[in-house]
Amino acid sequence: MKKRQFTLTALCLSIAAFAMPASAQKKYDPGASDTEIKIGQTMPYSGPASAYGVIGKVQAAYFKQLNEQGGVNGRKINFITLDDGYSPPKTVEMVRRLVEQDEVLLLMGTLGTPPNSAIHKYVNAKKMPHMFLATGASKWNDPKNFPWTIGFNPNYHSEGKLYGQHILATKPNAKIAVLVQNDDYGKDYLGGFKDGLGAKAASMIVAQASYEVSDPTIDSQIVTLKGSGADTFFNITTPKFAAQAIRKIDDVGWKPTHYLNQVSASVGSVLKPAGLDKSVGLISMLYIKDGSDPKWDNDPTMKDFKALIKKYTPEVSPDDANATYAYSVAQIMVHVLKQAGDNLTRENIMKQAANIKDFQVPMVLPGVLANTTDTDFALYQTMQLVKFDGKNWVDFGKPVAVK
């Protein structure tokens, strides 16, 4: 009997010894190894949307600091960020290089609706994780047809819808003028805005003008919109044109209730260049902490962020909302990589990105939690309405759902 017991024990130990290495086995796809995780990105460091280049600079600084602290699970981040000038053909060229030559493990934070639209089918055909895009187009939340693409920003369509609903509730007889960027980004916002106004959209929107990202100014559009007699203005623009619109509205003496989409709500890169005095009364939405707001001065994450900016990218203003945005995206990317552990395959990276549960990204507003499932890639469910008081964005009302 004792001999039989010994034999069974030895057999169990043998099985356990065989199983342990298998369970702890590391799995890698191209772009990952025992020492490195290779991440690719395109960013408009030049061209009409170059104000967003701050995002890539801050993320590069974040990963540099992270590497100095030991990396992610002992692996250093090799971050390759390339200039696409906000030109979709250039984006295609740069992404093909990242995927086929540099062999990155994943793409992170590629910026802009038109550039990402140009690579959408390609990266999904390549089964390349296309993660935390710097755009809020609703098309990024389509896990059934595009399971390798996941956005970061709240949905543009839903945000636009909320502005429409807010106007309907607070100013039901408003005469609305709209300025919109003439691409998918602008159309997504506008479609949501009209949905928010519902059946009254056709009668309430009395004027609409568009611009191209290559246009030097939008001055003539503002003059035309003012001439419509509108008393409410929805400003669907990227930072350069948002600042121009704010200035021109003041120059021509127009005093509408002014709604500004949140992607251009940066105090540092939009409102200061436009003029803080000219920006008083603007209404927008926020979901990320504002580096210019003194209420975050003692916040540990904000302190870490400002220390990083000072040390690694002193040319960047910590008041620039693009900088705190960049920090937020890098934080959630690291969260997903930590969840993935030693299984650094592209399939597992996407599996982890689709399984985020009530994660408080440290730089995101308290209570605005990130959640995803394999059937819903929309990260954020709530945003906060804010109004600019000449120095800071001030919350008003309760957080509202964006879905």
* Rg for CA atoms: 24 Å
Helix fraction bin: 40-55%
Number of domains: 2
| Head-to-tail CA distance between termini | 67 Å
State which percent range the strand residues make up: 15-25%
> What is the CATH topology of the largest domain?
Rossmann fold
Taking pLDDT < 50 over at least 5 consecutive residues as the criterion, the unreliable ranges are 1-23
CATH top-level class of the largest domain: Alpha Beta
Architecture of the largest domain in CATH? Answer: 3-Layer(aba) Sandwich
What is the approximate shape?
Answer: globular
Structural class of the helices, strands and pairings? alpha/beta
CATH level-four homologous superfamily name of the largest domain: Response regulator
DSSP helix count?
13
Characterize the biggest β-sheet: 5 strands, parallel
Please explain how this structure is put together.
The chain is α/β, with parallel strands linked by helices. It has 2 domains: 36-154 and 295-372, Response regulator (Rossmann fold), CATH 3.40.50; 156-286 and 385-401, Response regulator (Rossmann fold, 3-Layer(aba) Sandwich). The protein is 42% helix and 17% strand. It is built from 13 helices and 15 strands. The protein has helices spanning 2-23, 53-68, 88-101, 113-125, 156-170, 184-197, 201-204, 219-226, 239-251, 267-274, 300-312, 321-340, 346-353, and strands at residues 27-28, 36-43, 76-83, 106-108, 130-133, 149-151, 176-181, 205-211, 232-236, 257-260, 283-286, 343-344, 382-388, 393-395, 400-401. The strands form 4 sheets. It has a 5-stranded parallel β-sheet with strand order 3-2-4-5-6, sandwiched between helices. Strands 8-7-9-10 form a 4-stranded parallel β-sheet, with helices on both faces. A hairpin with a 4-residue loop joins strand 13 (382-388) and strand 14. Helix 2 (53-68) crosses helix 12 (321-340) and helix 9 (239-251) packs parallel to helix 10 (267-274). The longest helix is centred in the N-terminal third of the chain and has 22 residues, at 2-23.
